[in-house]
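Now for one record.
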Amino acid sequence: MHVAHINFLPPPKELAAADVFAHWPSLADIPDAAASSGIKVSVIQAAARRERVTRNEVDYHFLDTGKAKTLIDRGYQFASQLDQIKADMLHVHGLNFGEEAFAISHYLPRLPVLFQDHADHPPRWWRRRLWRRWYANAAGLAFTAKELARPFTAAGVLNARTRLFAIPESSCRFALGDRAMARTQTGCYGNPCVAWVGHLNDGKDPLTVLDGIAEAISELPDLQLWCAFGNASLLARVQQRVAGDARLAGRVHLLGKLPHARIERLMQSADLFVSGSHAESCGYALLEAMACGAFPVVTDIPSFRALTRDGAMGELWLPGDAAQLADALVRAAVNRPSREQVRRYFDDNLSFAAVGRKWADAYAHVLGGSAP
């Protein structure tokens, strides 16, 4: 089996192929995962210059697409490369590239095409007819949870025969690490020590999380919350909420934006990981937390249900319900698996090797024509 991954979004023009991997670490993640199952994987990447790089037994073909004047020309360019490497099927990253994949299918009509969601959204109503055409013959679509396909089926752009696969969007390279050493490095403490990693915005709902933390304090007086965040449209309201409540003041630590290595140390320091997200295509922070052994206390949304196996490894609570969060925090603090057990669950279900096995199974279903 030879599967070609394709990325239609080009990297910055000034980057040589070898530098793109540092700029986009995720470029190699899913191909590496798939290749770990013994599948031959190649990657075709739109770029400003033609180059070829081999990493971890995966061939990366950077194609200069700048000279292609039309979409059909680009389709021919990609199809020629696919034909040259004798790919058995095509794995397209992103659901917003149906037109590009359709152009390739014009030249290679028998090549099965499987699309992977990367936090994509259904089209506006005036583009839905085109999407139906582009996706009519798709061999399959992969989401972290099959429920995430519902907006696309509701919009009428997918038909009932389209195969859907539930595969985590990616994985994480964080390690379990030594908790005592991590806490020495980060200064984090608490019983439980709770980590939050996410933007301070309405979608992540930090205000409900603070309300839940405040309610849980009567049962968990030694709880400490450590918050790393990037975008922070709600920062002022979060600061006001913390300062105005004696239950929160002194126990909520707003760390701001941290480098990735520091996030790993934060997760290694934590007993629990909390999230108030109302929607996620996957949940990278959750993957990072579980890789480091932190037990999840996360919202009951499709992607988190998929990653925790409906709460088999984690506590789920209704988005926006602070009382449910407080109860979940208390349960998790009192009765949770060890860090090592959380990490074993991650290795078995969410690691790159585990994700690779899921991709191998999906590819086999597509090529074999059987239902997932």
